[in-house]
Automatic annotation (TrEMBL):
It is found in: Cell membrane. PANTHER family: O-ANTIGEN TRANSPORTER-RELATED, PST FAMILY PREDICTED COLANIC ACID TRANSPORTER. The lineage of its organism: Bacteria, Bacillati, Bacillota, Clostridia, Eubacteriales. Keywords: Cell membrane, Membrane, Transmembrane, Transmembrane helix. It is a multi-pass membrane protein. This is Lipopolysaccharide biosynthesis protein. It comes from Candidatus Caccovicinus merdipullorum. GO terms for cellular component: plasma membrane. The chain crosses the membrane at residues 20-45, 93-113, 165-183, 189-208, 229-248, 260-282, 303-325, 345-366, 378-396, 402-425. It comes from the Bacteria.
Length: 434
């Protein structure tokens, strides 16, 4: 344990460089593991197991992550501490214990509900519950990693994410390869995830020396209150993003869920690229808006919109031209028994890429609304689109299958982006007149 702690805490004199490198490595491994696991579960355990993994890990599990996480990292890492009107690590940790416990209870209720309604077999419910547990522990680990970042040790955040991912994903794949059983691999991964938090988070936080573990009466309640609207927005946002996947799990078989999860992967890449384009200009947009420089704000918004639009056109065009070839390669990775399983869905693949591009533009408008301090408007848009998604997704999937799921995703991204756009336009007009 001491040797591991020394390895984690070791940092060169160039801390900024270490922070950048390890944060990049950790984020990359985390994203890569999600994609690799989706392929290998289907290859090693079959298409039905792949579908169960898709709903348990990438969909419902990620939804439970949002409950455990509570959307608090932006608050936590910018909090100046209890002595300056903020909160201590002890208070954030107590809050995270409560949200993680709530997520476990919700996951258990969901599993029992699905079994009781005859929608899941007990084995599927157990796997989904354990995969959700894996993600909930991810949310618990985030409170440590947020504190590392607040203390100026972002490299520890990256190391923790990287080492935990390698340990838990490696354990999962090893057991899956030996047993060909998802039900055997899930508890192994869950235990490895818990071990990773103990090794790479719990044992490190006590060695930093500057961490405040104190708790004040009423502080946790204040954290719930301060982050409540943000949490609800994050929760609804992910539901909208995943509504088509929930509908496929409800209306189709497990194999369909697994295959849809594979053709849905470009959305993650598009999201990363979009953030790479958007985040560097947010500071300038904020300065322009706060200084009432509407023309400067609009110029940046137009420039990034054109860039996102151009990249979207290229991505959709490339998908229409090369999509079948890409899906054939994915089938080869899955194995000969899956030949033809994905290539029928080239149109759906292209529609999902288009939806991803629209989502990227919506993300730009989302950040614009945050800069304008219109979080309530964001929440209202999420409520309306989530309600529409709950009704429309099952209908489209039941009528058109996976193609309907792709259309639903694209439609909801369009609705969400349009809602954000209307809010931005109205506030921009108000600002110019004022």
């Amino acid at each position: 344990m001491k040797r591991m702690a020394r390895l984690m805490l070791h940092c060169s004199e160039q801390m900024e460089k270490e922070n950048l490198i390890w944060n990049t490595v950790g984020s990359f491994l985390y994203a890569l593991a999600n994609m690799v696991l989706a392929f290998l579960v289907i290859r090693l355990a079959g298409e039905d197991a792949g579908g169960v993994f898709a709903i348990g890990f990438s969909t419902f599990g990620q939804q439970m992550f949002t409950v455990s996480y509570y959307g608090l990292r932006p608050f936590h890492i910018t909090d100046s501490g209890a002595d300056k009107g903020g909160h201590s690590f002890g208070e954030y940790y107590r809050h995270r214990q409560i949200t993680a416990a709530a997520a476990v209870i919700l996951a258990a209720l969901y599993a029992f509900w699905r079994v009781g309604g005859g929608l899941y077999e007990p084995e599927k419910a157990a796997a989904v519950f354990m995969l959700a547990g894996y993600k909930i522990i991810d949310g618990l680990a985030d409170v440590y990693e947020s504190e590392f970042q607040r203390q100026g040790c972002l490299y520890l955040t990256g190391k923790s994410m990287a080492f935990r991912t390698v340990l838990s994903a490696g354990t999962f794949l090893l057991v899956l390869a030996l047993t060909r059983s998802l039900l055997a691999a899930c508890p192994a991964a869950l235990l490895a995830q818990i071990a990773g938090v103990i090794l790479f988070d719990c044992s490190i936080i006590h060695r930093l020396g500057r961490v405040d573990f104190s708790r004040r009466r009423g502080s946790v309640t204040r954290i719930f209150s301060q982050g409540g609207l943000l949490f609800l927005s994050v929760f609804l946002d992910f539901y909208i993003f995943s509504a088509a996947r929930y509908a496929i799990d409800l209306r189709m078989n497990d194999a369909a869920s697994g295959y849809f999860n594979l053709i849905f992967m470009p959305t993650s890449v598009i999201y990363l690229v979009a953030n790479f384009v958007i985040r560097p200009v947010l500071t300038r947009m904020t300065v322009c808006w706060n200084n009432s420089d509407c023309s400067g704000f609009l110029a940046i918004l137009k420039r990034i919109s054109v860039l996102i639009g151009g990249l979207t056109v290229l991505a959709v065009g490339g998908t229409l031209i090369l999509g079948r070839f890409v899906l054939m390669i994915m089938e080869m990775v899955l194995g000969s028994s899956h030949t033809g399983a994905l290539t029928d869905y080239v149109p759906a693949f292209a529609v999902i890429v288009l939806g991803g591009g629209i989502y990227a533009f919506g993300n730009l408008l989302y950040y614009s609304l945050v800069i304008m301090r219109l979080q309530k408007n964001i929440f209202c848009v999420y409520v309306v689109v989530a309600a529409a998604a709950a009704v429309i997704s099952p209908a489209l999937v039941e009528r058109m299958g996976i193609n309907g799921g792709a259309m639903a995703y694209c439609l909801f991204m369009l609705m969400q982006t349009a809602g954000f756009g209307i809010c931005v336009f109205r506030e921009f007009v108000r600002k110019k007149k004022g």
